[in-house]
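Re: 2'-deoxyadenosine-5'-diphosphate structure - here you go.
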Amino acid sequence: DVLSRLYIMVKPDGVQRGLVGEIIKRFESKGFKLIALKLTAPGKAHLEKHYADLKEKKFFPGLIEYMTSGPVVAMVWAGKNVVKSGRVLLGETNPLTSAPGTIRGDFAIDIGRNICHGSDAVESAEHEIALWFPEGVAQYDRAVDAWIYE
Ligand code: DAT
Ligand code: MG
């Protein structure tokens, strides 16, 4: 993992429930660097691409319907081990087994309303970043990095 990039998406329920700031805050406070951010409402075809590996699952149609029910907030975070670390911040797929202190553990109940997406590996993250940010991401230095990384 080491220096990598992570695709995070506040799902329609997270946006509706006013949890965008809360989710951004957790990644910001941790020390990760925000390199892309947008509110967007893509159609069915785009979300079917995003969740292509789940298209045989019985919950797939419901998942796509939910994901197209309102705008999402798409973002890219960069940092050391950001994929592994991001999955920890997010919690388990099922909020029921997500520890308190995690995003899903603190703010969600149902698996089909788990408020936030996070890439599960470095390769899928890069694939998702290309899908959601074809325009590219920002590149900038942060003076504070010297106080986050040894
Ligand atoms: P994650 O979002 O933790 O990476 P995933 O990639 O396996 O989990 O699934 C994507 C989303 O699909 C997940 O956030 C919620 C939904 N989902 C997964 N398993 C499900 C299930 N058994 N029933 C209903 N929805 C499910
Ligand atoms: Mg996944």
